[in-house]
């Protein structure tokens, strides 16, 4: 039997027809995703805020991205969870606009941060001698400001001025809008603009930067192999450690970028195509792809945990409460000049 979100049947959205077992399974899965997102990113935030050794310009960029991902898990995912499982929005029309704006803002801000982190790593790996001169604390804070401000202006402007409906108002109010719903709707022009701003431009920057890093790292590896026949063993080891760290940075960036593309590409491709397909993509599929995109914020801390020993050491100290010990903020987490 068909059930509705509200008593006024003729203008109400249709409630999901899933059984209680299916709903319980979906809620359990989404709660697990939310808790993992919150825990992982909170550990990154605490680690960089607490340990003096981690308070480098690059890590403040990572700290800012972890804050974005934490807020996504805190402010957006719980409400999206109820909407995805119930197919109903119980929190009012005004909060729907606020939630949608924050969702777009934080998702875009996370992607912007990834793009700027790739630029930072490019200079660290490919131009290490001039890295500190080019990527100063001021430059990092400008990156952070851009990563927050542009997505905020774009998201809130788009939703509250209803620019996302521009050119498709009749279609939306006749066939999509219903009482108790809160779907993210884009017309053809706004869908293309959102795709370009939130995904294509920052994603292209990441791809181009990683392409450059990969070939420069390969060239450095070749030069090291050639130099091995000429240099003394001590110098070889010193260069080997330095180049190994650079290759590790390139590999980490590649995996971060790969996770980003796998998580967000399906959603953005469907989002930009949907208006041109006369909104034929099922609502359930769109919801599933949004959650697949959210997973990017869940996986980011896992990448650091897997690749960086300093993260694992900081995690142990936080879990066992050692950060409350005197002078724990000065604890040495790594021996290299940079984590």
From TrEMBL:
It comes from the Eukaryota. GO terms for cellular component: endoplasmic reticulum membrane; plasma membrane. It is a multi-pass membrane protein. The chain crosses the membrane at residues 26-48, 60-82, 102-123, 135-161, 193-213, 253-277, 289-311. Its main location: membrane. Keywords: Cell membrane, Disulfide bond, Endoplasmic reticulum, G-protein coupled receptor, Glycoprotein, Membrane, Receptor, Transducer, Transmembrane, Transmembrane helix. Residues 40-304 form the G-protein coupled receptors family 1 profile domain. It is found in: Cell membrane; Endoplasmic reticulum membrane. InterPro entries: GPCR_Rhodpsn, GPCR_Rhodpsn_7TM, TAAR, TAAR1, TAAR_fam. One of its GO terms (molecular function) is trace-amine receptor activity. The keyword Hydrolase does not apply. Belongs to the G-protein coupled receptor 1 family. PANTHER family: HISTAMINE RECEPTOR-RELATED G-PROTEIN COUPLED RECEPTOR, TRACE AMINE-ASSOCIATED RECEPTOR 1. This is Trace amine-associated receptor 1. It comes from Phyllostomus discolor.
């Amino acid at each position: 039997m068909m059930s509705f979100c509200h008593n006024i049947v003729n203008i109400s959205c249709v409630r999901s027809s899933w059984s209680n077992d299916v709903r319980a399974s979906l809620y359990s899965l989404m709660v697990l995703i939310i808790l993992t997102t919150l825990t992982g990113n909170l550990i990154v935030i605490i680690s960089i805020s607490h340990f003096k050794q981690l308070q480098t310009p690059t890590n403040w960029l990572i700290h800012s991205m972890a804050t974005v991902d934490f807020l996504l898990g805190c402010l957006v995912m719980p409400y999206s969870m109820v909407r995805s499982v119930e197919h109903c929005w119980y929190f009012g029309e005004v909060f729907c606009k606020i939630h949608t704006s924050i969702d777009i803002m934080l998702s875009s801000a996370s992607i912007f941060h990834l793009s700027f982190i790739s630029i930072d790593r490019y200079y660290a790996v490919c131009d290490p001698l001039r890295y500190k001169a080019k990527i100063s604390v001021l430059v990092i804070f400008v990156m952070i400001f851009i990563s927050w401000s542009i997505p905020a202006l774009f998201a809130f402007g788009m939703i509250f001025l209803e620019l996302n409906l521009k050119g498709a108002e009749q279609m939306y109010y006749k066939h999509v809008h219903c009482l108790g719903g809160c779907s993210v709707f884009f017309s053809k022009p706004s869908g293309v603009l959102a795709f370009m701003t939130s995904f294509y431009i920052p994603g292209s920057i990441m791809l181009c930067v990683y392409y450059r890093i990969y070939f420069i790292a390969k060239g450095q590896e070749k030069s090291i192999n050639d130099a091995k026949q000429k240099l003394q063993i001590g110098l070889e080891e010193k260069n080997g450690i330095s180049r190994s760290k650079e290759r590790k940075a390139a590999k980490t960036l590649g995996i971060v970028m790969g996770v980003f593309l796998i998580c967000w590409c399906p959603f953005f491709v469907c989002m930009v195509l949907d208006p041109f397909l006369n909104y034929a993509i099922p609502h359930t599929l769109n919801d599933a792809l949004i959650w697949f995109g959210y997973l990017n914020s869940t996986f980011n801390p896992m990448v650091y945990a897997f690749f960086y020993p300093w993260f694992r050491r900081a995690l142990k100290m936080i879990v066992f409460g050692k950060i409350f010990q005197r002078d724990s903020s000065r604890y040495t987490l790594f021996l290299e000049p940079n984590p």
